[in-house]
Specification:
The chain is of the alpha/beta class. It is built from eleven helices and ten strands. The strands form two sheets. Strands 1-2-5-6-7-8-9-10 form an eight-stranded parallel β-barrel, surrounded by five helices. It has a two-stranded antiparallel sheet with strand order 3-4. Helix 3 packs parallel to helix 4.
């Protein structure tokens, strides 16, 4: 039996800790005590990069903290990285390269990046060229990633506020389209990141079957983001994150059972790559009351996937 999923843990994105390495140190210790095996760091919450340059003193302090804990690390790059932002492409590439360098310093073997997105009118007129140019850019970044000993995990997109407002769109709302792009790039340092909540939302927004599409993306998947959602788009006005849960809208980052995803059904469909990790993405309030049961659910999900491979 091949062990497809080898590590399960949490994303640090919802922990706060903007630049507070002492707080990060405490939280990493807590994750180890919980039985987590990975932590996904957030590149923009570490104050370790400025102007797309690594800050040597901060990097040294960060590495000291990370080395204290028996955890595998992955890294989520800035969400603002957009490799279809052609007017700012030089800056976008420098930011992506800095993220890869930061991952290497942290011994994080996966860097999660979001695929390109553009205004809808531009997509209608130029989609083929945009996809081709993104493939060229990502291929060069993957070369750099490979040299640094890391992989890029391209994540399926969530229908964020700009997409809902109609000012932005991305092919990567569709899991099959993402699979096609990753396959076309065909680089050993590039995998797909399956964000289960994003997939549920994309399915309801665009009218596809999330489970069927996840099965088609699965051969490219080398990283998983794990959380629940109903998939209902956040098309109403809302102000407080608690309202997102109350109404059941958007990217809820909720524990299993708070949304509508059938995790057991999904696990039985996935034939993913070896040495994949699960990073649980919970909002701080959910982490506070549901971290143990969510970690147990994610490990059970991993066991089901592994048993069928």
């Amino acid at each position: 039996m091949l062990e497809r999923i080898t590590h399960t843990g949490f994303s640090a994105a919802q922990f706060g800790m903007h630049g507070d390495l002492a707080a990060l140190d405490r939280r990493l210790g807590e994750l180890v005590d919980l039985g987590a095996e990975i932590c996904e760091l957030n590149a923009v919450r570490l104050d370790a990069v400025s102007g797309c340059r690594l800050m040597p003193q901060r990097i040294s302090e960060l590495k000291t903290v990370l080395a204290r804990h028996v955890l595998r690390y992955t890294l989520h790059g800035p969400i603002a990285v957009n490799l279809m932002d052609e007017p700012h492409l030089d800056l976008q590439v420098r930011a992506a390269e800095a993220t890869l360098e930061l991952a290497s310093e942290c011994e994080a073997n996966i860097v999660v990046l979001h695929p390109g997105r553009v205004p809808p009118a531009l997509w209608v007129d130029q989609s083929r060229g945009l996809l081709a140019r993104e493939r060229e850019t990502v291929s060069k970044l993957a070369d750099r990633a490979q040299a640094l000993g890391v992989k890029i995990a391209y994540e399926n997109m969530s229908p964020n506020r700009r997409i809902i407002a109609g000012t932005e769109t991305s092919y990567a709302l569709d899991l099959v389209a993402l699979a096609d792009q990753v396959s076309a790039i065909s680089h050993p340092a590039l995998v797909a990141c399956l964000d289960v909540s994003h997939a549920q939302q994309g399915a309801l927004l665009q009218g596809f079957d999330m489970y069927e599409q996840a099965e088609q993306l699965a051969p490219h998947v080398g990283h998983i983001h794990f959380s629940d959602s109903t998939g209902v788009p956040s098309t109403i006005q809302w102000d407080d994150e608690g309202e997102r849960l109350f109404f059941g809208i958007g990217d809820m980052h909720a524990p299993p059972g708070f949304g509508a995803i059938d995790f057991d059904r999904l696990a039985k469909l996935l034939r993913i790559q070896e040495s994949t990790a699960i990073a649980i993405e919970l909002r701080a309030n959910h982490y506070g009351h549901s971290r143990e049961q969510t970690l147990a659910a994610a490990k059970a999900f991993a066991e089901t996937v592994n048993a069928l491979n």
